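[[Per-residue structure]]
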Amino acid sequence: MAHVPIARHLLRARDLADARYADADMAAAAGLSPAHISRCFKAAFGESPDQYPLARGLERAAALLRVTDWTVAAIGVAVGARSIGSFTTSFRRMYRMTPQAYLAAPPLPHGMCASRAVWRWPTAGRGTARFEKTPDRSLHGVGCTPSTQEPAMTTIKIAHAQFWVHDQDAALHFYTKKLAWEVRADVTTPEWNYRWLCVAPPGGEGPALVLMPVPGQPMLDEASSAQLSDLGAKGAGGTLFLETDDCEAAYDELSARGVEFTDPPTPQPYGIDTSFRDPSGNNIGLTQVLQFDPERH
């Protein structure tokens, strides 16, 4: 069996930190002693097990300030603050402004850090959804030529997405036995020491998921391969977004098959969602999309 980086075990501990489990439970999940977990956790994720839930709670509070009409006090209680004073102090330390000031400020352009940004952009009203417009179809894509006639479009579609995995056999067992997906392709080329392994939900003709082993030489040197493996184990390998027509039922069904969810089905303005991870730490979101409602929480 391929080596699983310690960061993968620490990621299990981080998922428990999100759910506010005790340090002893987190240490057991990571296979470390309680005295060792704090140092390893901070080295992997930049925050101690005690700091991590607080930071995530403040991020959730910032989101609630944007999409709900809750009072600052109600949001503080919702994210587990002990008092409105401690909530305001912690929020100011992270975002460099009070919750009230954050509420009054326009939202940041995507990708900018709130603690370092200068607020410049106008904003829509609070609690409203903002969607990007579909690009103008008059723009020329592949197979199009500037013409007054109907352009000849070349058919292009997404065929596969990919996850890096630490062990293809362990990944195959997870996706076929626990998720009940089907194998679309499993082809090995011995002379290249290469295995093309694809899985997908049953009964569909949509894109398949490639379970690709973390490459070594000659594609990557040993250090780069270890870095890529470590990033995946920390949960930074990307997310696969799945949709379902009944999130609660899917949660119960997959839990009965042994899938360990990182959070229960949770109402969001866009619907109901939950998430889980595969054996390599890749994140998989499961969403029941509903009509946008900023009051759904």
Remarks:
- The chain has ten helices and eight strands.
- The beta strands are 160-165, 182-189, 194-200, 208-213, 239-243, 261-268, 271-277, 283-289.
- Residues 6-104 form a domain with the Arc Repressor Mutant, subunit A fold (CATH 1.10.10.60).
